[in-house]
Amino acid sequence: MKHKFYLILLAAVLTTSFSSCQKIIEFNGETTEPQLVMVSLPTADSLWRVRVTESRFFLNSNTIQHIDSARISVEVNGIPANTSCRYEGDATYNTGIRPHCGDSLSMHIEVPGKGNISASCRIPQLPNVSDFETRFDTSSTSYYDEYDDTTYVYYDGNINVAFTIQDPASEHNYYMVSLEDWVEYENAWIRRSITIDDNILFPNSATSDYFDIGLGDEENYGEYVLFDDQNINGHDHRVNISIPVRIQSVLKMKITVSALNREMYLYCKTRRAASEYGFDELGGIFSEPVQVFCNVQGGIGILGASAMKSFTFSVK
How far apart are CA 243 and CA 64, in angstroms? Predict the structure, then answer.
């Protein structure tokens, strides 16, 4: 299958409600007609969903067109699924399927009067991650609040998180690491930015398996950090993360290590580049477009997949 890279100005990027995904339209200097867009990023053992919309020319201020009449058929390991996709609103469809590691997925979408799009991918195996450990180095700080006549004690320091990736030697593997805080008043996990200082995973001269978009972003920093096994292929590698924090009470955190298929890896890297470099300091759009990976036939978008392991821990 021939994959495509589309040029985008960030104003044309959309965000989905369930996966923070972005859609893209090709821009060649002329008004671009709408194209069908699908974004689906299934995770092993979780419900498989897809969002279907139409692209919008970036200078057009009209509302993004949601598709609520799509006819969606899916195959798992080459066998048509005996299920119908349920529309959940906000252009999102639920296939009712929970794919497993190693499953090959295909999706075909027909929209009456607008055309057909399709894509395929495979769910990767779970990452081999072990020997997870945490350490909290702290110093206390007192703070007096004159409004309620109370002295509060905070603990400043670093949470040091470590784990070992056992990388298989027989294939090219792709990884994502993210960290989340449990926010009680929002009743939700919220991502925080992390830095992975690792000269093996991120050597200055490394060239990973993705096309050069010429943006030079800090690959080892962000709300999620992506890397491949180019420099650790077939070896065990210890990953260390130092997280500066200020704690007043118990802090509940979760670190997630995901194995990605190549399509999702490329999509996430280029989507991140589009998000970080699409606007200049004055809020304007860069004159140079940003390339975003796409593997949808007949339209634009992405069908990529992941399998993840999460570790939850508390610091107090």
Answer: 39
Per-residue pLDDT, averaged over 118-125, amounts to 97
In angstroms, the CA 192 to CA 47 distance is 25
Mean residue pLDDT across the chain: 81
DSSP, residue by residue, 185-216: GGTEEEEE-EE---TTTS-TT---SS---S--
pTM: 0.80
User: What is the CA 255 to chain-centroid distance, rounded?
Assistant: 14
Rounded CA separation 70/110 (Å):
6
267: its two tokens: 């999509």
> CA 257 → CA 61, 124, 156, 175, 213, distances in Å?
38, 13, 26, 7, 25
Q: Which residues of 130-145 are buried (b: 16+ CB within 10 A; e: fewer)?
A: eeeebebeeeeeeeee
Residue type, 43: T
Q: What is the pLDDT of residues 36-81, one digit of tens each?
A: 999 999 999 999 999 999 987 655 566 778 999 999 999 999 999 9
pLDDT in tens, 197-228: 999 999 864 444 444 444 444 689 999 999 99
Interatomic CA distance for residues 295 and 76, integer angstroms: 18
- Return d(Cα 23, Cα 12) in angstroms, integer: 8
Residues in the chain: 316
Cα dihedral: 95, 101, 104, 107 (round 10): 20
Which pLDDT band holds residue 7 (cuts at 50, 70, 90)?
A: very low
Tokens of residue 292, six digits: 């975003």
